[in-house]
Each structure stands twice: as structure tokens, then as C-alpha cells.
Amino acid sequence: VSSHQPINTCMLRPLEVPFRYLFGPGPSNVPPRILAAGGRPIIGHMHSEMFGIMNDIKKGIQYAFQTSNNMTLAMSGSGHTAMECAVFNIVEPGESVLVAINGIWGERVAEIAERMGAKVHTLFKTPGGHFTNAEIEQALAKHKPVLFFLTHGESSAGLVHPMDGVGDICHKYNCLLLVDSVASLGAAPLLMDQQNIDILYTGSQKALNAPPGTAPVSFSERACHKMFNRKTKPVSYLLDMTHLSNYWGNDGKPERIYHHTGPVSGFFALRESLAILAEMGLENSWSHHTEIAEYLWKGLEDLGLKLFIKDKDLRLPSVTTIAIPEGYDWKELLAYIMKHHRIEFTGGLGPSVGMVLRIGLMGYNCNKANAAMALAALEDALKQCRKSKA
Ligand code: PMP
After folding, report:
1. Domain holding 126: CATH number?
2. Which residues of 96-107 are buried (b: 16+ CB within 10 A; e: fewer)?
């Protein structure tokens, strides 16, 4: 027997990975302690020690989310996996869902819900906008959804959404509240239980500083009641919470049965990232992100730039959006900064493309030295890339 497909010579070269300062909206640089955890020799996904590590992860997420929910776990997959898991398990085809769209993440959730056959209603603002509780209440009364989706940290717009009272309003209308905290967890205050959030998810690769590929998620008792008493099975086998709750030891059954092979190395890294957050303390992490963000915002304004979110209280501390300065090509600015400073900033995403530049300083990356480096790189690019006198 001989093989016919020839080896491409690229496969005979060693792996090359350049160094980059990841100062965009994620992933962020991974600190050595987390890299080392992810580099530990793996064990089996069903070994008792692995279940012990998963139990630690659960405790770490409960702290990070500020919840006592038993139904707390990490998805094998990125933030989108948690997003789909929440929608697929909570909503049955034909049920009404309300999605707040003020950037790309609402757009995505609306599409996910539409694909699984939900009746999707939307509340809409252009990027940078946010919703008042009165607007939310009016839409809940009108559409009577089983689920309302809101993004806490809108990374495409750089907006942190006010959360006070939203959970109470949802419950008044017998609706579950689903919140995306992928870009905000650890950077801006969020209290799952106190704020009456029913389903909360985040990602590993932002302020948690783990590699991409795992996504913490938690479900309230109310959410569990709905998802475990449905008439139809969720469309996804992989994301079915009946199986996942058993895999994570959350269903009270004495034995865990094989469902899928979780990302063992990813779980090691996630455990370590949650341990670092616990050691630092949430309040310290929140205030640290705010302090560095304020330093960055002041520096950007001193460079003559305009911040996209005018109201300081609505600015997401982890991802800052800058209005694209007149007289510049935003793609050229980004390319210049990457080439000459090895720094990644990004442009907008979805509806904010062409509106903003984005700088993210999250977790391990969030310090004054990095903020100063980001400002110096931007100052240099503004000098070098000017197209016209604006
Ligand atoms: N929600 C928000 C707010 C995000 O910033 C991101 C990632 N940019 C996601 C969801 C999706 O996460 P992932 O890319 O890990 O699937």
C-alpha cells in the first residue's frame, strides 16, 4: 500500500508563531502560569482527577459569576457555543424570543434563534445605543417572549449595558433573562444572582486570559425548570444540557456517562485563569480595569481622538472604541501599528465596521505600561498615516 497524496513541504518546516501584543477585543495574551497549566500532560476526560478539576472550574465560575447556581459548567467551545447552548436548550420551536440588538451580538443571537425555529422579535439601537428599562418592559409586554437576550459588554460598540432592574422586569413578564458577558466578565461589575440573570455565559479568552476554546455558562433554577421540562429535544445533541449536566456532575446522578471528549488542556488552562481571578478578587479586578481604562481614555483624548461612547459610565472598561479620526484610512492605521509595533488593535465588527477602532486591555494585558505602549503606537501611526488635512 502506498500513499498518493504528496507531502506539502510546509509540513516539514517547524511551527512558527510570531509574538504579538494582543490589544484588540480578544483573544488577549495568555500569562505564563496559564500557558503552563494548559501545557501539562493530559489525563483522560473521564478520570476522577479530571472530574475534580471540573468541580474546581465550577466553583471558580460560581465565584466569577457571583452565583450559587448548581447548573454551572464550561462549554467545550468558544463563546458562540455557550450562546447556542443557551438558546437551543431554553427555547422550543415556535416560542417567542426578544433580542436586544445594539451591535453584532444581538444580531448573532437573533439569527441563532431564528435558525432553530423561534419567533424572533427585536429591540434595536445603532451601535453605541442602549435600552431603557421602560423600552424593555414595553417590548416584553407586547411580545410575551420566553427569553430576553441582552449583551452586558457590547464589544463591537464598546458599551457596557446597565443591568439594574432588567431581571426583575423580565420575571414580572414570566420571561427568562439571558446575558452575554464574554467581553465584560472580570472587567465590569456583574452579579448574576443579585441581578436576577437566568442564564449567563462568558468566554475564556478575554479578561480571563485563557486560550480560546472554553466558555463558562450558568443556568438559574427557573432556567433549569424550563429547559428540563420541554416537549421537544433541543436541535443539538452536542449542546443538550441533559447530557452536559451529567458530564459536569450537576444532575445528581451517581455516575457520569460519556457524552463527548472535553478539551482537557483547555480545562486545565481555564481552571488556572479562574484561580488567578479568585486570588485577585473580583472587586479588585473591576476597579483595576476601570483605572487603566480611564488612563487610556485620557491619553486618547490628549491625542485629539474622540471616544465613541460619550458617557463614561456606559464605556466598557475592557474594550475601548475610538471614532475613526477624519483624514485617515482605518485599515492603514491598523496595518501600520501591527507592522511597526507588533500590536493588534482592530476595527469595528458587524454594524460598527468603519465607525470605530477598538483597543482591548483585559486581565493580564491590563496595565499602565501596556496602555502607554498602545498610546505611543497610535500616536506614531497618526503621524505617519495622515491622508489629508482634516
Ligand atoms: N459575545 C461577545 C460580547 C464577544 O465579544 C464575543 C467575542 N468577540 C463573543 C460573544 C463570541 O465569542 P467567541 O468568539 O469566543 O465565540
Report:
1. 3.40.640.10
2. bbbbbbbbbbbb
ipTM, two decimals: 0.99
Work out the percent of the chain whose per-residue pLDDT is above 70: 99
The rounded Å distance from CA 325 to ligand 1 centre is 26
229 and 335 together in one domain? no
Summarised one tens digit per residue, pLDDT across range 22-80 is 999 999 999 999 999 999 999 999 999 999 999 999 999 999 999 999 999 999 999 99
User: Which residues surround ligand 1 with Cβ inside 6 Å?
Assistant: 25-26, 78-80, 105, 151, 153, 155, 180, 182-183, 203, 212
Compute the distance between CA of residue 202 and CA of residue 138 in angstroms, rounded to an integer.
28
Domain final residue pick, 221, 250, 279: 279
CA of 25 to the centre of ligand 1 (A): 9
* pLDDT tens figures, 229-249: 999 999 999 999 999 999 999
Whole-number Å distance, alpha carbon 70 to ligand 1 midpoint, is 24
Q: Which residue has the cell 456583574?
A: 190
Helices 264-280, 282-302: axis angle to 10 degrees equals 90
For 374, the domain range is 21-26+282-384
Q: Report the C-alpha gap between 199 and 83 in whole angstroms.
A: 10
pLDDT band at 387 (very low <50, low <70, confident <90, very high): confident
Rounded distance between C-alpha atoms, residue 198 and residue 178, angstroms: 6
What's the alpha-carbon Rg for the chain, to the nearest Å? 22
Residue among 209, 167, 241, 185 at smallest CA distance from 27: 209
